[in-house]
Write a structure and sequence with these properties.
The chain has about 425 residues and is α+β, with helices and mostly antiparallel strands. About 55% of the residues lie in helices and about 10% in strands.
């Protein structure tokens, strides 16, 4: 295929992202973008079911992946000016950034709960087994595919290469925080990307990504932004309720499909197989949000009232409710769940599909991938050792919601345990 001298992707977040065929690495990136496996990412939403909560959250894994590659190129090319010895790793960093999410399945992270899959595993499988992608990588460098696997497994010999793709301060997080903030309308998610990129540095001795001490405030701001995005966007109660509901819809579909009470095409049948059937790469890449949403549209007319209702709820945004019961002990949470189940049972509603506990655990700042090291006059210092603000973000926090239909909301809020709890807080 004959390519024009350059290719420009007009991104709503970063502006024009231009790749040139005169640069061998960027020519490879253009060809990788044009593969069917990568184009499939256009049909997978970045934030799963979050558009039911934030109507602007319609972006795809395709746009995010291009954005990560763009940020990685900005970061790496700037470092390469000062440290030209990094040049041989440019293809690894940029391809690693571009392809890091190619293994995502339908509904993104929500889909991993539905189908018990792991996108990181599938990303590595695609690198090894996709004929088009493997051919492009091998033609460029026979060692590129295996190098990318090492990058994704965090075992590559030069830590900086993996850290730019996946770490506590990586190009993936920089793009998705900015992008998700923009598309959800969450103004507190804005980052000072330019200042962060200017603060990034390389330590030749340890070969890792470090941050100039003058950039400490920008990194602290980035970590606070991440904290709020998880607390207010990713773990928003409506997000949790919509995700929980679609998981139940496909759980019901899986059970009915095993009993031949509903129909599905061969791809969806394989994905929902109750056995340990291993998906082929062909079946995996054939699935996306469109394929599964079509089945939800068909199943809303099912004779099974539970499946029909759960599909209607997702398609019509008639979401289940979520009540924060984090302040209760785990024993009390189970008591509230049992109370909710009894309320539904009394109304003739199958409780197993309509109420449950949804737990969101935010681990806080950790030393994942060597943490974030500041380059100080006393040498490298881990940011949590010298930043009081980051120290406050280290502690993980756990929140628990009970999911239930609005039809029992009044009765549930009058539960004696909840009444005693709220009176005690007053």
């Amino acid at each position: 295929m004959q390519y024009p001298p350059s290719r420009t992707y007009h991104d709503p977040l970063h502006g024009s992202i231009t790749l040139t065929t005169q640069d061998p690495v960027e020519s490879l990136l253009i060809q990788l973008v044009d593969t069917p496996a990568f184009q499939r990412l256009r049909r997978i939403r970045q934030l799963g079911t979050a558009s039911l909560t934030f109507h602007g959250a319609e972006g795809s894994r395709f746009t995010h992946s291009l954005g990560v590659m763009h940020v990685a190129r900005l970061a790496f090319d700037r470092l390469m000016i000062t440290y030209p010895q990094l040049q041989p790793y440019r293809a690894l960093v940029l391809c690693g950034a571009l392809l890091h999410d190619i293994g995502h399945g339908p509904f993104s992270h929500t889909g991993e709960d539905i189908f018990h899959s792991h996108h990181e595993t599938w990303t590595r499988t695609i690198l090894r087994e996709s004929p088009q992608i493997r051919q492009l990588l091998d033609q460029f460098d026979p060692a590129l595919a295996s190098g990318l696997e090492q990058v994704y497994l965090k075992t590559f010999e030069v830590p900086l290469v993996s850290q730019l793709v996946s770490s506590q301060l990586d190009c993936d997080r920089l793009d998705y925080l900015l992008r998700d903030s923009y598309f959800t309308g969450a103004s507190y998610g804005k980052l000072d990307l330019d200042r962060i990129l200017m603060a990034l540095d390389y330590d030749p001795h340890t070969q890792q990504l470090v941050v100039a001490q003058k950039g400490q405030a920008a990194i602290e701001h980035y970590l606070v932004v991440r904290y709020f995005m998880y607390a207010q966007i990713y773990n928003h109660p409506k997000n949790l309720a919509s995700a929980w509901g679609i998981v139940q819809a496909f759980r019901r579909a899986r059970e009915l499909l095993a009993q031949d009470k509903i129909i599905a095409d061969p791809i969806v049948s394989n994905w929902l197989s109750p056995t340990e059937l291993e998906l082929s790469l062909q079946d995996y890449l054939a699935a996306d949000d469109t394929v599964f949403t079509y089945h939800l549209q068909q199943w809303q007319h099912s004779d099974d009232p539970i499946l029909s209702d759960l599909c209607h709820r997702y398609l019509d945004r008639d979401l289940l409710k979520a009540m924060d019961i984090s302040d209760l002990s785990q024993v009390q949470q189970q008591e509230i769940l049992a109370y909710s189940q009894d309320l539904l049972q009394d109304r003739g509603i199958e409780p197993g599909y309509y109420t449950g506990l949804q737990v969101a655990l935010t681990r806080g700042y950790t030393l994942y991938q060597r943490g974030i090291n500041l380059l100080t006059s006393q040498g490298l210092r881990e940011i949590s050792d010298i930043s009081v603000l980051v120290q406050a973000l280290v502690r993980p926090f756990r929140r628990t919601w009970i999911i239930y239909p609005v039809s029992i909301e009044k009765a549930l809020t009058l539960a004696p345990l909840l009444q005693d709890h709220w009176v005690g807080k007053d």
